[in-house]
């Protein structure tokens, strides 16, 4: 579901930007048997402050298995990578 939303937002991004998942609220409505094909879809709803809001759904061959809302934020790639590197160093210190 997150990937479906990210694919909608991707063409709108600058080369130096990435979109990141900020929040997912999904209700699962049915179990899917192992090996089933699952398709996720996203529909852009609105912008709320800095967040891009999507309605997300997932289906298998028998119908809907989940529905909810997903929010994404746009960030500078360099900022995200710098934050990840800082976190990596903090984790390594704990070891």
Key terms:
95 residues; 4-stranded antiparallel sheet; 2 helices; 4 strands
In words, what does this structure look like?
With 95 residues, this protein is of the alpha+beta class. 27% of the residues lie in helices and 48% in strands. It is built from two helices and four strands. The chain has a four-stranded antiparallel sheet with strand order 1-4-3-2. A hairpin with a 2-residue loop joins strand 2 and strand 3 (51-60).
Short description:
The chain has 95 residues and is α+β, with helices and mostly antiparallel strands. Helix content is 27%, strand content 48%.
Q: What is the typical, i.e. mean, pLDDT? A: 96
In sequence order, what are the helices and strands, one letter per element?
HEEEEH
**Can you give the helix content as a percent range?**
25-40%
Task: Calculate the terminal CA-CA distance, rounded to whole Å.
Answer: 34 Å
Low-confidence stretches: none
> Mind telling me the C-alpha Rg?
16 Å
> For the report, how would you describe the main beta sheet?
4 strands, antiparallel
The structural class is: alpha+beta
Secondary structure: elements and pairs:
Blueprint: H1 2-9, E1 17-28, E2 39-48, E3 51-60, E4 63-76, H2 77-94
Antiparallel strand pairs: 1-4, 2-3, 3-4
């Amino acid at each position: 579901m997150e990937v479906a939303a990210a694919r909608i937002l991707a063409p709108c991004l600058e080369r130096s930007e990435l979109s990141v998942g900020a929040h997912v609220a999904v209700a699962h409505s049915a179990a899917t048997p192992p090996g089933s094909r699952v398709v996720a879809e996203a529909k852009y709803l609105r912008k709320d402050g800095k967040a891009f809001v999507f309605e997300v759904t997932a289906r298998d061959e028998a119908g809907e298995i989940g529905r909810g809302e997903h929010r994404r934020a746009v960030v500078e790639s360099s900022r995200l990578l710098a934050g990840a590197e800082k976190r990596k160093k903090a984790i390594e210190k704990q070891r």
